[in-house]
Amino acid sequence: MLIIRPLTASDDFYAVAQIYTDSWKTAYQGLVPQRYLDKLRPESWIGLLKADPQANLVALLDDQVIGTAFVSYARDEARESFGELVGLYLLPAFTGMGYGRQLWQAAVEHCRQQGLSGLCLWVFSGNDHACRFYERMGMLASGRVKTEAIGGELLPLTEYILWLDASSPTIKQGVERP
């Protein structure tokens, strides 16, 4: 049975960081410079995890950490009152089994419990697999794009959002409220 809960100080931070590393190396081949992916190590993420463990949800299957979702307040001032899904990753061997959907649902519920009006995320443009997943989860591309420097290259990112509060109208074209 899958258990999803916040990361705690007693958890194995290295195992969670390994999920980030393995996921990046698998999911971002061809999107992120290979030389950057080759240099990734779990230690790159441990500081982030320790800085705010409660912002990270972990998915455990038979006591093995198989996935993680990092949820924070939106870092973009244009998304005030939004949460941001900074990352949602599973060990590659556990993709396609419904665990990502369950982890996604827990992240959304986490934001709802905090009274946030929406959830946003940024996905590498061209990451069709991730875009299809988030669209199946009800998110829509907002039309906003930005670039981020990774591995010495400027990589394009596309924003997706989901309104969470019950008073939000059904989203039609675009994502802004009428």
Task: Give an overview of the whole structure.
By secondary structure, the protein is of the alpha+beta class. The chain contains five helices and seven strands. The chain has helices at residues 13-27, 34-39, 43-51, 99-113, 128-136; strands at 2-6, 56-61, 64-73, 82-90, 118-124, 140-150, 153-163. It has a seven-stranded mixed β-sheet with strand order 1-2-3-4-5-7-6, sandwiched between helices. Helix 1 (13-27) packs across helix 3. The chain is globular, with a radius of gyration of 16 Å. The protein starts with a strand and ends in a 15-residue tail after the last strand. The model is unreliable at 169-174 (pLDDT under 50).
Mean pLDDT: 91
Number of helices: 5
Low-confidence stretches are 169-174
Across the major sheet, the strand order is 1-2-3-4-5-7-6
- Principal-axis shape equals globular
Helix content: 25-40%
Work out the strand percent. 25-35%
End-to-end Cα distance: 42 Å
How is the main sheet built? 7 strands, mixed
The counted number of beta strands is 7
Structural class, by secondary structure, is alpha+beta
Tell me the radius of gyration: 16 Å
Order of helices and strands: EHHHEEEHEHEE
SSE layout and pairing:
Layout: E1 2-6, H1 13-27, H2 34-39, H3 43-51, E2 56-61, E3 64-73, E4 82-90, H4 99-113, E5 118-124, H5 128-136, E6 140-150, E7 153-163
Parallel strand pairs: 4-5
Antiparallel strand pairs: 1-2, 2-3, 3-4, 5-7, 6-7
Helix pairs in contact: 1-3
Index terms:
about 180 residues, alpha+beta, 7-stranded mixed beta sheet, 5 helices, 7 strands, about 30% helix, globular
